[in-house]
Design goal:
The structure is a single chain. About 40% of the residues lie in helices and about 15% in strands. The protein is α/β, with parallel strands linked by helices. It has two domains: about 120 residues, Aspartate Aminotransferase, domain 1 (Alpha-Beta Complex), CATH 3.90.1150.10; about 220 residues, Type I PLP-dependent aspartate aminotransferase-like (Major domain) (Aspartate Aminotransferase, domain 2, 3-Layer(aba) Sandwich). The protein is globular. Bound molecules: pyridoxal-5'-phosphate.
Length: about 375
C-alpha cells in the first residue's frame, strides 16, 4: 500500500518546537496535570495508580461520561481511542475498500482524505464556499453522490474555517447519504470551543449510519492526553473494537483516569468555560489584524475553534509563504495547501497573546517586503 505523507502533521511535528513564534496550533494553551488534580483525593488516586492494562475500549464509567455529551447516547455507543486521529483512522479502516467513493468536506484536516486514497477509494471534494461564508453549496451534492459513495466525511465545526453547518445542511447531507446507503462521519473535535452562543449541536441523532468522532485535544486543551472517541451504533462500535485491538489496543492508564476527571460534569464545564474565554479574548486580535489588511486579506469570522483562516489575492503560493515565514521570520503558520486549499493560510490564536502579536508583526513585515519586491519588479 502506498501512503502519501501527511504534510500538515509533519510540518508541525518537525518545526513547532524549533521556531521562535509558533502560531500553527489549533487548540488553546494546554492545561496541566495539576489543573485536573484540583482536589486532594484526585491527586492521591493518580499517585497510587497501578500501571496495569486498562479496559481496552474504555471503562464503562468513562464511556458513559463521553456518551453524556451526545443526545440519547449510552456507554455502548462509545469507544475510547488514542486521540480523534485514531477515531478517524478506525472508521476509515472499517469502511473503506478499493473502488469506494468518499465525499470529503474541503478545506479540512486532510487525514481522512489521505487515508481514503491509501485504502484505494476515490475522494470527491465537497467544497465549503467563501461566498457562502464557508458553507457547502448543497446544490453540488447530487453531482457528488453515486451508488459507490461509501462515506461522507465532515468536520463540524470545521478546521480551518471555524464554520458550522446549519441544521438544514445537516439534514440535506444525511438525506443524500441515505439515498445510497452511505455512512456519514462527523469529526466534531472542535465542538465546545465556540466564540459566542450555544455549543454546536452534534450530528448525533440525525441519521442511523452515522459516526461522530471527538476528543479532548481542542475544546478541552488536553492534546497530550491523547483521548479521543467514536460514537456510533452499538453493532458498529463492537466491530470498531476489533480494529482498535489491532491498532493502539488500549489507552494508557493515566489517560483513562485523567480523561474521567476532565469529563466530570463540574470540571468539564470549568474547562470549556476556560477555552471559551481564551478564544473570546484572543479573537479580536485576529479580527483587527484582518481589518488592517482588508485590501489584501479576506477573512470570515470563525464560529468555533482557536483558528483563523485568511485568504489573499496576491497569487502567493501558500507553501512558499509558509516556508519563507518560517525561515526568514521565525514564524510557523499553517499554509493552506496543507488543508486542501492554496491561496489561504491558518493562524492559531489559542496560545500566548504576546507571541501572537509578535508573530503578526513579523507577518506584516513579510507582507510589506513582498509588496515592495512586487512593485520593484513591475517598475523594471
Ligand atoms: C479536525 C481534526 N480532527 C482530528 C484531529 C486530531 O486530533 P487528536 O489530536 O485528538 O488526535 C485534528 C488535529 O488537529 C483535527 O483538526
Amino acid at each position: 500500500m502506498q501512503i502519501a505523507p501527511f504534510e500538515l502533521e509533519r510540518w508541525q511535528s518537525v518545526w513547532e518546537n524549533r521556531v521562535e513564534l509558533n502560531i500553527s496550533e489549533s487548540g488553546v494553551e494546554p492545561l496541566t496535570v495539576r489543573d485536573l488534580l484540583d482536589d486532594p483525593a484526585a491527586a492521591e488516586m493518580l499517585l497510587g495508580l497501578r500501571l496495569g492494562y486498562p479496559q481496552t475500549n474504555g471503562t464503562e464509567e468513562l464511556r458513559a461520561r463521553i456518551a453524556a455529551l451526545y443526545p440519547n447516547a449510552r456507554a455502548e455507543n462509545a469507544i475510547l481511542t488514542a486521540g480523534c486521529a485514531e477515531a478517524n483512522f478506525l472508521v476509515s479502516w472499517l469502511l473503506l475498500e478499493p473502488g469506494d467513493e468518499v465525499v470529503f468536506m474541503l478545506p479540512n484536516y486532510v487525514q481522512i482524505q489521505g487515508l481514503a486514497e491509501s485504502f484505494g477509494a476515490t475522494v470527491k471534494p465537497l467544497w465549503l464556499r467563501e461566498k457562502l461564508r464557508w458553507a457547502p453549496d448543497l446544490d453540488e451534492l447530487p453531482r457528488l453522490i453515486t451508488n459507490k459513495t461509501k462515506l461522507i466525511a465532515l468536520c463540524n465545526p470545521n478546521n480551518p474555517t471555524g464554520a458550522t453547518l446549519t441544521a438544514e445542511s445537516i439534514k440535506a447531507i444525511c438525506a443524500a447519504a441515505a439515498k445510497v446507503g452511505a455512512y456519514v462521519l462527523a469529526d466534531e473535535v472542535y465542538r465546545g470551543a465556540e466564540l459566542e452562543g450555544e455549543t454546536t449541536p452534534s450530528l448525533w441523532g440525525n441519521y442511523d449510519r452515522l459516526f461522530c468522532t471527538g476528543g479532548l485535544s481542542k475544546a478541552y486543551g488536553l492534546p497530550g492526553l491523547r483521548t479521543g472517541w467514536i460514537i456510533g451504533p452499538p453493532t458498529m462500535i463492537d466491530k470498531l473494537w476489533t480494529y482498535h485491538d489491532y491498532a493502539s489496543m488500549a489507552p494508557t492508564m493515566p489517560t483513562e483516569k485523567l480523561a474521567f476527571l476532565a469529563l466530570q460534569p463540574a470540571r468539564n464545564a470549568r474547562i470549556i468555560a476556560r477555552t471559551r474565554s481564551i478564544v473570546r479574548k484572543h479573537y479580536p486580535i485576529m479580527r483587527d489584524w484582518a481589518a488592517k489588511h482588508s485590501g489584501l486579506l479576506t477573512h470570515i469570522p470563525p464560529r468555533a475553534g482557536a483558528i483563523a483562516w485568511y485568504g489573499y489575492n496576491t497569487g502567493w503560493n501558500s507553501a512558499e509563504m509558509g516556508e519563507e515565514l518560517r525561515t526568514q521570520k521565525g514564524v510557523l503558520i499553517v499554509p493552506g495547501n496543507q488543508l486542501g486549499m492554496d491561496g489561504y493560510f491558518r493562524i492559531g490564536f489559542g496560545g500566548d497573546a504576546e507571541v501572537l502579536q509578535k508573530a503578526l508583526g513579523r507577518i506584516d513585515e513579510w507582507m510589506a517586503e513582498k509588496s515592495e519586491k512586487a512593485k520593484a519588479k513591475e517598475a523594471r
